[in-house]
């Protein structure tokens, strides 16, 4: 929070009200950001977060951002070591801190390996396999989406001469194909959502 007292990080995902978009039952990446140096911050975020593997892997984590610059309490800022630059914390599904990366030197490779090790150690799950499955589903979604866009373009061209009966027949045919593809797109999206939801319900910390 941004008040005068510091709640434990676990409260982010164990409290009664979760942050927008957060899910229970999955690990969490917390980014403690600072934008006091805009150029340095921009370079850091591009270096750390714009990696494709990190982007896809983040779908199996809650990803939360807390601005160190908006914390008024000097005591809390000191506890979070705000003077040392941005930090990335990894929490398990119960809110326990698994580790922390601090400073401007963190890279996307380090973050990905960090997420990978935590998933393997605490959840007995190979993150690379999850990424392969998720990547395949996202590719399917992308392919169907662009098939629909191509049909929309073709229909748009035909509508320029829709007075022609031939064009009308082709438009009707393509619209039928597009309806089928739209159904397929919803099915693939539902499959991808079910895959992510299954991880949230089945992914549990390993027994110590």
Task: Summarize the structure in short.
This protein is an alpha+beta fold.
Report on this model:
- This protein is an alpha+beta fold and 208 residues long.
- The protein has helices at residues 11-14, 38-49, 52-57, 74-79, 108-123, 127-159, 165-202, and strands at residues 28-33, 62-67, 87-91, 97-102.
- A 4-stranded mixed sheet has the order 2-1-3-4, with helices on one face.
- Residues 204-208 have low confidence and may be disordered.
Question: Mean of residue pLDDT?
Answer: 85
What Rg do the Cα atoms give?
A: 23 Å
- Give me the strand/helix succession: HEHHEHEEHHH
The biggest beta sheet is recorded as: 4 strands, mixed
Tell me the helix content.
55-70%
Distance between the termini: 31 Å
Shape: elongated
What class, by secondary structure content?
alpha+beta
Strand content: 5-15%
Instruction: Strand order, main sheet: write it out.
Output: 2-1-3-4
How many strand segments? 4
Number of helical regions: 7
Regions with pLDDT < 50 over 5+ consecutive residues?
204-208
